[in-house]
Amino acid sequence: MKEKWDNRMAFILASIGSAIGLGNIWRFPYIAYRYGGGAFLIPYLVALFTAGIPLLMLEFTLGHKTGHGAPFAWGSYKKRWKWLGWMAVAIAFGIVCYYTVIMSWSFIYFFHSFSLSWGNIPEFFFNNMVLERSGSPLQLGGINILVLVFLVVTWMAIYYSLYNGVKTVGKVVYITVILPWLILIVFIIRGVTLPGAMTGLGYYLTPNFAALKDPIVWVNAYAQIFFTLSVGLGIMIAYSSYLPRKADLINNAFIIGFANCFTSFLAGIAVFSSLGFLAHQTGQGVANVVASGPGLAFVAYPTIINMLPFGNRVFGALFFMMLLTLGIDSAFSLVESVSKATIEQWKIPRRTLNLFIAGTGILIGLIFTTRAGIYWLDIIDHYLSCYGLVIVGFFEAVFVGYFINTESFKSYMNEQSEIKAGRWWVFFVKIVVPLMLLGALGYGAYQEFLTPYEGYPTSVLIVGFGFLLILTLVAIMFSKKERRL
Amino acid sequence: MPISAWVVFYVTLFIFIGGFIFCFSKMKSKKDE
Question: What is the ipTM of this complex?
């Protein structure tokens, strides 16, 4: 019998859970601060309406109409387009290999938070005691056993979350989506009631409208929307293939887009009020303590937790619990994209396949558990997100906009939905999405040309780019394989 | 926090909450089930 979601809420929560991840907490607030503060919300919202939601609508319709995962959804239009689906799936697999390692760090920190083990030296603790970080990407320095142990634990959590496919997912997401929201609210209340919070929020929300004249700000807003909504990874196609025949595709896309961006906005309030407090306590300017990425989660936040007037251990445990629950539903959605496509291709039983995916994920993840793991994680993430994902999104919009009957695609979506897609949707898919994604791609490549990414040696960057190339070749190879009946 | 930041805060809140109210008002409760 064909798998189905238990109800509409399970689908909405699972899609929201997939979209909301660590990036909402540690990337959006920083990007907003850097590119115009409160004024950044204008290009961000424009990008949500003109690219994010139209692409979500596209992926939901594709998955629902064909009932397939990404490769066979594209293949049902033209057999030679299967590569695009496999490429999305391959990138999803590449991402989950390192995403699970970040979750492993979060597990380690969750346990350390009960004793505040990072003491007064959070940066030293993160680099030297948790990661045991080497001096360069080329000094692997062997595997960090503790990171590996928690990597296995993370994969076990993913395996059991997908045990009965979307039936289990539909239940797990009630915890993994709602719990981090509740914790985020706790952090907002705690953050805004700390001394210095309003100064921090001033940095986050005060608009610098002059920044809007800079095209780079717009490119970054589109890139941020694109990365945050889990499009281009085959996830939304796979998830919507499990919807019942009658499903409001457009309204679902709007709800998921709003929920994701609203969470990012709220996360910015929690993060910047806390950074304002950190600046206040250390006597520095907010600009000096601003952080993003792992530096925010594993260095700045532990420092802030140390300085809280009471309940430090509780807030520490809550913060890392939030990261874990935010991460797990994004991680298993990536695996679901892979397993849906593989089951359709080779008819392998789901649990056997998920065990195999977990085993392969751990094996490939070994590189990220080494003492140089954080460097490789950064490099691979850069190539998969800034190039791989953007290329998939670009071709998705071009294929639907120019190579299939866009009107009939739109009519199918409208038959299902209360809110109707008009000519605006066709315009966004044909013109805005490809142009902005090309802009993001061109800007990234230009930056790369000016200075090598993060100053890494060229040889190392070639390996990173090679990883993307291998995934692309695997995708093309899989697309040539005949489906097992 | 300057007044312009408060304006940004309330306008953004209004857009999101308005968006949610609009979407949920268009939701036919049993349609998908």
Answer: 0.90
